[in-house]
Automatic annotation (TrEMBL):
Protein source organism: Pseudonocardia charpentierae
Domain of life: Bacteria
Coiled coil start-end: none
Identification of the protein by name: Cytochrome P450
InterPro entries, per database record: Cyt_P450 (IPR001128), Cyt_P450_B (IPR002397), Cyt_P450_CS (IPR017972), Cyt_P450_sf (IPR036396)
Length: 382
């Protein structure tokens, strides 16, 4: 069904308090399990608001991630589309056996066991970066730290020199800076990938080069590495701000850190909506008929915060064959920083009342992040 009041609501910019619910989610849930609204790029989009229907949609082979199936009238930059899978193969656009083969090449690098071996580095990095800005004066951790930390972790894992962090962070930010920004950013990402693939370097980049299917070209490999750096930064950055706000909340001082990270991600998922999917034929979801080439989104934030949802695994990292490859890495990064703040900075505190924290979203399918996170990182009681 279509709810006129919900038109464009999930894509509109929003400025709200850190604990205020998103105003679009309750109306979307009330409108039904599958709701038709207007897409930013024009025409209709169907948003799945029911978790059971969402899980079915996420494994339905008739619903593809390949942007080649987007409505013909869509402008890819306006819609935020990647190149079609036939042009540039990637984990986020391929489906079926081709996706499975590419995922099989990536998967051994991102197992929980493999990543836990780097947990010590993650904690030491957090200690060093936070110690550099610690003191009696407030510091805005959302201004630089939450963005820089995940980039530094990713470059370490990939085997890209640590002195390229500024380049990588600049490229991530340039992806959102006007029509010329993405082109400049992609050139930088390709250069970063090449640095990680230099003969003699070790790391995930070199390992991935040796694991991908033989038909993957060097330029395509560079794009695969971009697909690890950019998404890994833009999703972990906002999540880290919310985790820090929660770990510094007096009411959660004794919370188990794994539970805190998991619950924070459920209430503030880095991606409130899935990436675009499209029907390859007519599909019926929860009694709603979707035509071929219909854009489909799953409301991750809405399903996770539904007051009537049952306890259990949520959709923060998706489900099915496209379950987020970086889920373990993101969770470990968030936990490492939370642990460092709690153990190394026992007197750290928010410099403003929690209720004064604001979260902002610029619209589209992207998520919210804290506008500012002023913190006093003192190591002694003041």
């Amino acid at each position: 069904m279509t709810d006129p009041a919900a038109a464009l609501a999930p894509f509109a910019p929003v400025d709200r308090g850190v604990d205020e619910p998103d105003p679009a989610r309750a109306p979307l849930r009330a409108a039904g399990p599958v709701v038709r609204v207007e897409a930013p790029a024009g025409g209709s989009v169907w948003i799945v608001t029911d978790e059971a229907v969402a899980r079915a949609a996420l494994v339905d082979p008739r619903i593809t991630k390949d942007p080649a199936w987007a409505p013909p009238a869509w402008d890819p930059p306006v819609a935020g589309l990647e190149p079609p899978a036939a042009a540039v193969p990637s984990l986020t656009t391929l489906d079926g056996p081709a996706h499975a083969a590419l995922r099989q090449a990536h998967a051994p690098l991102f197992t929980a066991r493999r990543l836990r071996a780097h947990y010590g580095f993650m904690t030491e990095l957090a200690i060093g970066m936070l110690s550099a800005v610690a003191g009696e004066d407030p510091v805005d951790l959302a201004a630089d730290f939450t963005a820089r930390y995940p980039v530094a972790v990713l470059l370490e894992l990939l085997g890209i020199p640590a002195d390229r962090v500024d380049d990588a962070l600049g490229a991530c930010r340039a992806m959102f800076t006007g029509p010329e920004g993405p082109g400049r950013a992609m050139a930088t990402f390709a250069d970063l990938a090449a640095a990680g693939l230099t003969d003699g370097r070790s790391g995930f980049a070199a390992e991935l080069r040796d694991r991908v299917p033989a038909e993957i070209t060097r330029d395509q490999l560079h794009y695969l590495l971009f697909g690890l750096i950019f998404p890994g930064q833009i999703t972990t950055d906002p999540a880290l701000g919310f985790v820090l706000a929660d770990v510094l909340d007096d009411g959660r001082a004794d919370a188990d850190l794994d539970d805190l990270v998991r619950e924070t991600l459920r209430h503030h998922p880095p991606a409130p909506l899935t990436l675009w999917r499209f029907t390859v034929e007519e599909v019926e979801l929860a009694g709603v008929r979707l035509p071929p080439r219909a854009p489909v989104l799953v409301d991750i934030l809405g399903t996770g915060t539904d007051p009537h949802r049952e306890t259990g695994p949520d959709l923060t990292f998706g489900a099915g064959p496209h379950y987020c490859l970086g889920a373990q890495l993101a969770s470990l990064e968030l936990r490492a920083v939370a642990e460092v703040v709690r153990t190394e900075f026992p007197y750290a505190r928010l410099a403003v009342p929690r209720a004064a924290l604001r979260q902002v979203s610029h619209g589209g399918i992207g998520g919210s992040r804290l506008a500012a996170l002023p913190v006093v990182l003192g190591r002694r009681k003041t």
